[in-house]
Amino acid sequence: MVKLKTFYILLIGMLLLASCNVLADEKAIASNSSLELFTQNKTISDEKEIYLLAKFSLQKDWHTYWINPGDSGEAATFEWDLPDGFQVTGPFWPEPEVIPYPPLTTYGYTDNLNLLFKISIPNDAREINTITVNSKWLVCADVCIPQEGKAKVSIQKSISSEFSNESGLINKAILNLPEKIETPILAIVENNNLVLKSNLIKSVNSNIYFFPFREGVIDYSKKQKILEKDNSYSLRIPLMANKTNISLLKGGILKTNSKAYEIKVSSAGQYSSISGEPQFISIGLAIVFSLIGGLLLNLMPCVFPVISLKILNFVEHSENKTQVTFHGLSFSFGAILMFVLIGLSVVALKMSGIDVGWGYQLQSPLIVSLLIFLFIFLSGFFLLNVNFLNSLSNVGNFGLQNSSYLNSLGTGFLAVIVATPCTAPFMGSALGFAILQPGIYSFLIFLFLGIGFTLPYLLLSAFPKMLSALPKPGLWMETFKQFMAFPMILTALWLIWVLSSQISSFQLVLVLGGVVLIIFFYWINQLDIKTLSVKRFRYFLYVLIAGLIFFTLPLEDYSKKNIIGNFSEEIISEKLSQGPVFLNFTADWCITCKVNERIALKRESISALFDEKNISYIEIDWTNKNDEIAKKLASFGRSSIPLYVYYSSENAEPIILPEILTENIIKDYLR
User: Which domains does the chain show, CATH number per domain?
Assistant: First the structure.
C-alpha cells in the first residue's frame, strides 16, 4: 500500500514537472549578450492582438545595430515558429543613437535593445501557445562578434486576461517608439546635400539628426547642419559622393530635442537633363518656360480643331478692326481665366493631399464622357452649320449669335479644356514647380501659361493689320469649317478608346448610346417643321434627349480606375539591380505620349538599341488614377506627362529626357 502511494506521488510530481517544462520560457544566451521574449499578457481570453518584446541584453559598452547600421554592421534577423493561426508583424524599432567609431559612423543601441513585435491571435487558439524565435545579431565593441540563439515564450488561453510581469516594460517600449507623421516632408538636393524642410526644426540650436531607412544614401561620417532662411529652418545632410539615386529614399527617423518622429520623405527636385543633378528651377525660369510652353501648346494636335474656330472668327471680322480686337481679347481672357482656374484647382487638390497633375481630369470617366459628347456636338455644329443656341432662342427669346463676344470667351474656355491632354516642350518643368510648390508662384505660372497660349491672338488684337496675311472671307470658310468636323470626330473616337480602358463594356455601350442621342438631336433639329404644336413637341424632345444623355454618363463606380497596373517600386529596383532602366510615363489620353511612342520609342531601331545595351524598358501607364505613380512623378519634380527617365546604373542619378522625342534624341541620351 505504501509503495502504491509512493507511485502516485511520483506520477503527480512528474506531471507537474512536465507541465512546468511546457510553460517554461527559454532564454537565448550567447557569448557577449542574451535574448529573451516577453509578452504583454500572461493569459489571453478574447484578445486579437498583443505586443511581444524581444529584449537584447549586452555586456556593458557593447552595442548592436539598427535597421540601417550605417557605415558597418548588420541588423538583427528573426525566424519565427508560431502556433497555428498566429501571425507576427514587426519589428518596430526604437530611435537609434549615433555610434561613432572614426573614421566610421554607425547607428545602433548600446548595452540593451528592446524591440517590439505584434502578435495576431486567432479565435481558436489552443490552451497553451508557445512562440519560438531563432535570431542572429551582431554585437561590437573594439571587435565584432556574431551572436545566435533560440528563445521562446508561452501564452495561456484562459477565461480572463492577465497582464504579464513585464507589461510595464513593454508599455514603456511602446511609448518610446518614434511618432509617425503621415504627411511627407519635402526634400530637395542642393550641391550633393539632401535638404529637409520641416516645421519640426525649431531653431539653429536644435539637436536634430536624420536616420534614413535606406542604406548607402547619406554620408554618415559628415555632420548634419541646420540652416535658417526667411525665418524657416532646414536640415542639410551630406550625400554619398557616388551620387546615389535619391528617389529610393522613402523616409527615416528624425530625432529632435523633445522626441523622435518616423517621417516620409517626398523628393521633389528636378533632374537636369545635362548634369543629372536634381534641382529646382528658379521662379523666373519657370515663368519663362510656362510662357514658351503655352505658346507651343497651340501646335499640339489636341488643340488645333478648336483653334480653327478662332481663325475663322478673325477672318470673318477682318474688315472691322474694332471687332477683331474685342473678339481677340474675349478669346484671350477666356483662355487665360480657364488656365488659372484649372491650375488653381489642381493646386488646391494637391494641397488637400490628393495626388493630381496636369491632365488629371482625363482620369475621370465622367469628364472623358462629357468631352466625347462635346466633340460629337461640335462636329455636328461644324458639319451641318446648325446653331443650337439660336434654335433655343426661339423658346425663350434669348440667345447668343455666333459673332457675339461671349462666344469668343467660350471658345477660349473650350480651347484650354481640350488642351489639357497635351504637354508642350518646356511645360513639364514649369508645371512641376507650380503644382509641387503651391503658393503665389503657382498663380503666376498658370497665368503666364495662359498668356503664352493666347499670345498670337493678343498680337492680332493689338495689331489688326497683321490679318492682311490671312485669306479674304469667302465660301472657302464654310468648306473649311465643315472639314474641321472630321478632326472633331477623330478626337471623339480617340476619347472613346481612352474611355474603354476606364469603364466596363456595359457602361461604354451606354455612353455610345448618348452619342446616338446627340446625332438624333441634329436630325430632329434640321427637320422643316411648320406647325406650332409639332415645334413645341420638338422642344420637349430636346429636353428629353438632355435628360437621357445624363443617364448614359458613368456616374456610378463602374470604372476600372482602381486597378494599379504594372507599376511598383519593387519592379524598378529589381530591374536596376540587373542593369540600366528606361522609364516611360504615359497614358492613353496623352496625345503627345502616343506620338512620341509612334515616331521614336517603339521604332525597331530603338528597341534594338535597348536590347544591345541591355536596358530594361518599363512603361508606366497613368491612364487611370494611381497615387503611387503621381508620387513617383513628384519625385522627379513633375506633375504631368510625358516624362522619360533614364538610369544608366543602380547608383546613378536619373536623367530626364525632353518631352518631345525623336530617334536621334533617344540615341544621344543613351550613349
Answer: 22-176 (2.60.40.1250), 180-267 (2.60.40), 569-670 (3.40.30.10)
